Amino acid sequence: MDYFPLFLDARKLNVLIVGAGEVAARKLELIMKTPATITVVAPWVCDTVKQLALNEKVTLIEREFENSDLTHKDMVFIATDKGDVNQHIHDLARANKVLVNVVDNTPLCQFITPSIVDRSPIVIAMSSGGVAPVLLRYLRQKLETVLPANLSRLGAFSEKFREKVKQTLNGVTARRYFWEDVLDGDIAEMVEKGQDKKADDAFELALQAAAEDKKVEGQVYLVGAGPGDPDLLTFRALRLMQKADVVVYDRLVSPQILELVRRDAEKIYVGKAKSNHTLPQGDINQLMVDEAKKGNRVVRLKGGDPFIFGRGGEEIQTLIQHGIEFQVVPGITAASGASSYAGIPLTHRDHAQSVVFATGHLKNGTIELNWPALAQRNQTAVFYMGLTGLPIICEKMIEHGLDASTPIALVQSATTEKQQVLTGTLADIVAKQEEAQLQPPTLIIVGSVVSLHDELNWFND
Questions:
Q1: Is 272 a catalytic residue?
Q2: For burial by CB atoms within 10 Å, which of 18, 46, 235, 289 has the most?
Q3: Which of 246-250, 357-361, 429-433 has the lowest average pLDDT?
Q4: Annotated catalytic residue: which of 243, 250, 302, 305?
Q5: Is the whole model's pTM more than 0.70, yes or no?
């Protein structure tokens, strides 16, 4: 390593910044995140530095640099546009054993400032030694998306209990395993959500169980996997999928999304197709309870959103009855994903001022819905699981007031490379579908917004 990474104690650090333009402002903003005492010296000061210098930890001196400015300083940033001045201050700083950084001049830098991901007290610093700044920025962006925004809470939480764990568990290995379980599990989720009392109580129970070599009860996460494209997963969904001990997933979860699940997690398929249920819903509910009672972190992975025709409410009721802790992670529902990727806005000022979701799942050969409420002009109606009942849907929508020429779209495998969009009217879509033979999962969208498909279609264009 050409540059040795280290972290300086900034609590008694005296920092000098020479120069007060926008370049100096960036260094000033960075140092102000620490408790360091800061002095800025420059004959001209930009507005940004003036505003920052209102902070009591910053002393602003509006004049040319003087050699005495380096007295009692531990570190200096030099950010002037005068090469001879920069060289002079650099030489003087080195002679006085003051750490020196000449901004944008790596050969004159005794140290360089890294790219920082700040989740204080957790701080990640990265450097390319000045040779690949764009790559460094790219890596930082990746880390920012992966690391929870509330990671700082976990740092403070760990500090609070560090000594107690040390006193309770004997041996470095036992403590390490315990902390790994805590930070990778339900307690960490509670901390990140600000559920401090709940997290403290759960931690005490977990610590007691670890001391007695017992396993505490697990938790269930109902996670919306979205309509199919793995890029549409939420950050939270992805984090939980990679923590799971057991993943219970349905037919609408794409193989690409399953690839993102933790490699050694047990994957249990409980998919349901029409008239072909791998497991009845009651058995699925009990399966989650049983796995959680074994101490496992269970992710119930559902296509779309758990609370929009996902039967998530029924599953939660069972968990509550058995006293199982749970969380719900929303996902992009099929209606939103299908309409967006098909170029069909669900609402539009000129076409639809409301949108309604309905299930097209047949029951005893009929679809028992409030047809007058669904068949409204200036409204978009979206039918889930309605492909088999398409003839009935079209017939009822016309019967209850919509014109036979009302546009309708069928969207198959929305947001994936297999997506197909078939458009027509209530009068002719059944015949078109008999020829096209689209397959489930297919969403049905009814309303004049469908007429915008040809103009706004971007995904299958």
A1: yes
A2: 18
A3: 357-361
A4: 250
A5: no
